[in-house]
Write a structure and sequence with these properties.
It is found in: Cytoplasm. The chain is an alpha+beta fold. It contains twelve helices and eleven strands.
Length: 321
């Protein structure tokens, strides 16, 4: 069913969905990847998982792991908001549900936690509405982008791998690409958080033409490096559009990125920061980068060697999960 046709859908009663239960799994993501600001994103093998069951009445939410005791347990919970948004798109009200979330994606660290929550809600709604309502991949991306504001995080969370996202008059679109098997991401997570809104507020309204040209060349090179020539990743991750402007808000991140790059490692801000993504060309380089961090970092950083997730978000009947 298309989004345009959905407005005429007949609202379903909660009873028609009663007892349906789905399991959703969504990967972490790293957006921008250096030069690909608001365009490129990579799915990473660290996951938030949840189960949603349609019940007789009320709204019950349990959160375990990251965010436990911190995130709201009512209709303002981001997963619930995304579910309600999706149900409304197809002419339905969100039924009473019980939601149990098990989170491992760090919050406020530039690893796509909000995008993962939105994608989890959209996918949970998809699982509960099918087969009566069919939601296409483009519609999934559109629904998630409407809540997230831009597609660079939600695209890899939905589809996995490396994604190129762009916006058209007809909505957001994406292209998924497979990543060279040698690419070995290392994510460095500090103890402190960073507001995405603050990071974006540091961006200038315009940039010099030569800086734009610089980033166009590096973004094109980065796609080639990630899919077939990882030895080019250091040069391909250079950026002049956003990272230098954000450095003042995350000086420890900036210092560590500079040290890693001086040592030959392709390190960039992950998303809005303050985490760092190192796109090592093989596992041995990843280990070398971790040693650089251990030897030079002024504060504690959690080093997470993560694989690229190639599957993206999944939704299955809970009994089959």
């Amino acid at each position: 069913m298309s989004a345009a046709a959905s407005a005429e859908a007949t609202p379903a009663s909660a009873g028609s969905l009663l007892g349906r239960k789905v399991h959703v799994k969504v990967p972490a993501t790293s957006a921008n990847l250096g030069p690909g600001f608001d365009t490129l994103g990579l799915a990473l093998a660290r996951y938030d998982e949840l189960e949603v069951e349609v019940v007789d009445s009320g709204l019950e939410i349990e959160v375990h792991g990251v965010g436990e005791g911190e995130v709201p347990l009512d209709e303002t919970h981001l997963v619930v908001r995304a579910m309600a948004h999706t149900f409304a798109r197809y002419g339905r009200e969100l039924p009473p549900i019980r939601l149990v979330a098990h989170n491992s994606i760090p919050h406020g660290r530039g690893l796509g936690s909000s995008g993962a929550a939105i994608v989890a809600g959209v996918m949970a709604a998809k699982g509960l509405l099918e087969p009566e309502v069919e939601i296409s991949p483009d519609e999934l991306l559109e629904l998630a982008t409407e809540l997230e504001g831009h597609p660079d995080n939600v695209a890899p969370a939905l589809f996995g791998g490396l994604t190129i996202a762009w916006v058209t008059p007809d909505g957001p679109r994406h292209k998924k690409l497979m990543v060279h098997r040698g690419v070995s991401p290392l994510v460095l997570v500090p103890e402190h958080e960073m507001s995405t809104a603050l990071a974006r507020s540091l961006q200038p309204q315009s940039v010099p033409h030569e800086d734009a040209v610089f980033n166009v060349s590096r973004s094109a090179l980065l796609v080639a490096a990630l899919i077939q020539s990882p030895e080019l990743l250091l040069a391909a991750t250079e950026d002049k559009l956003h990272q230098s402007y954000r450095a003042e808000a995350m000086p420890e991140t900036d210092r560590l990125i500079r040290r890693l790059r001086e040592a030959g490692h392709p390190a960039v801000i992950s998303g809005a920061g303050p985490s760092i993504l190192v796109l090592a060309s093989d596992p041995s380089e990843r280990a070398d980068a971790a040693r650089v961090v251990e030897e030079t970092a002024d504060t504690a950083w959690q080093a997470l060697p993560l694989a690229v997730d190639f599957l993206g978000a999944t939704v299955t009947p809970a009994d089959d999960a």
